[in-house]
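[scheduler] slot 2 assigned
[scheduler] job type: sequence-to-structure, two independent chains
[scheduler] chain ordering preserved from manifest
[runner] begin chain α
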Amino acid sequence: MAPIISVQNLTKTYANGFEALKGINLDVEKGEILALLGPNGAGKTTLISIICGIANPSGGQVLVAGHDVVKDFRATRGMIGLVPQELTTDQFETVFNTVSFSRGLHGKKANPAHIEKVLRALSLWDKKDNMLRQLSGGMKRRVLIAKALSHEPDILFLDEPTAGVDVTLRKDMWNVVQELRASGVTIILTTHYIEEAEEIADRVGVINGGQLLLVEDKAALMAKLGRKQLILDLTEPLERLPDCFAGNGLTLEAGGSRLTYDFDADNEQESIATLLTRLGENNIHFKDLSTRQSTLEDIFVALVGADK
């Protein structure tokens, strides 16, 4: 099956010569959740803006369901919902009216039942008659999501959707995203919250300096680039490690009172058992042990740091 979004050698250079995107290639499959991670200025919003038809590329091509986003703008834009970073809303309009108006802007007939369904899903129904200026920042962000869903898009872009939102609202939004994916909506989100990608994404892309460093299945990425560590709190501190342990991933820390061991997850039991036996043979004893798996944040920091 052809990808619902296909980005081919996409570039964007501004008038001042700044290269925001440098040959981006990306395919997004129908019904998946893709999280794009990257620092400020990495090119995330520029990439989304071009796919949504808000900005023009300098080179390359973007296809949405086989339609070119430049040559067939109307067809592609009608398939896409966008939740921008900025809280751009009509402060003196009611929640229900502003969401209904967004549906009309996309050429869809009025459908109060659908608007009610969207507002209820986002816990906004009891605010439907409130003017937007009466809402909190978190509620206004929910309204932006409601507006993006008003015309029943096949693809939803969420550009920093939970920025400035409290933890409770963030969790609620994650639930909404999962429900949308279950209904067949393809979702691409940018986020600064690594745990957001770790919680809900199927695949993770890392973008930095206008380049897409990688796009991987989340679990495969963590298995390939993640690191597992065994942490041993020693009964007695060591001044130094015996020479026989040099070069095998064992590190002495915390003033000689802790050992950390980087090990191969594929041979976890064998490697740990061998290490513990060798420690005992060298009269090195421990009072506690634990393991630690690298998080997506560790991998992201390592990738972005290596790209500088």
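[runner] end chain α
[runner] begin chain β
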Amino acid sequence: MTSAEKIIAALDLQSREEVLEVLDMLPDVRFVKVGMELFYSTGPGLVTMLKDRGLRVFLDLKIHDIPNTAYGAIKSLSKLGCDLLNLHCAGGLEMMKRARDAVVGDTKLIGVTQLTSIDQTVLNEQLGIEGTVEDCVLHYANLAKQAGLHGVVCSPNEVSMIKTAFGPSFLAVTPGVRPHGSHSQDQKRTMTPKEAVQAGSDYLVIGRPILASPDPQQAFNDILREIEVAS
């Protein structure tokens, strides 16, 4: 895997036209994320278009439902040929096992542990989950491993812990990656690209620091160089 393939550019956009415009500005991008906002506004045909352009695709829809519904959703979505597809570990072991059984083709299924917007206060006081964020992430990652998932989505802060517990082949896909000088926005558990790679992150999901930059290609190249130095 090249350094460029470690960067998953988050296409947090609303239209096919915006996507094409961004891709024209980012000729070196090799991996992109399609989230709820874009998928719901453009439909599954966008994934096919991105694959036809030779891009790898992370379909970030965070499936979370009863096991039978999750099974059907994952079966339909994995048929699109996306490289990564995710669900919420909070749906439980049975849901994750059923979803894993539903995967079609070479799509790798990964589980969301805790969103990077969740901090200790939110976890304990609003979600009603006892213990630390790290405890919860490790518990959910353990369930994902038991279910046969290929890895998890977590903040870079928890990557080292997950790799130690489950081995280097268990994927750690990390949003919450912010270059120096970038605003964290609604993400609370963050690292720089260099720190994330050094911690063991397999893929860095980065959106606003690239797309909102006056020069997206330069922003991408700066992150790429930082990763290459850290690798």
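[runner] end chain β
[qc] chain β: The chain has a mean pLDDT of 94.
[scheduler] slot 2 released
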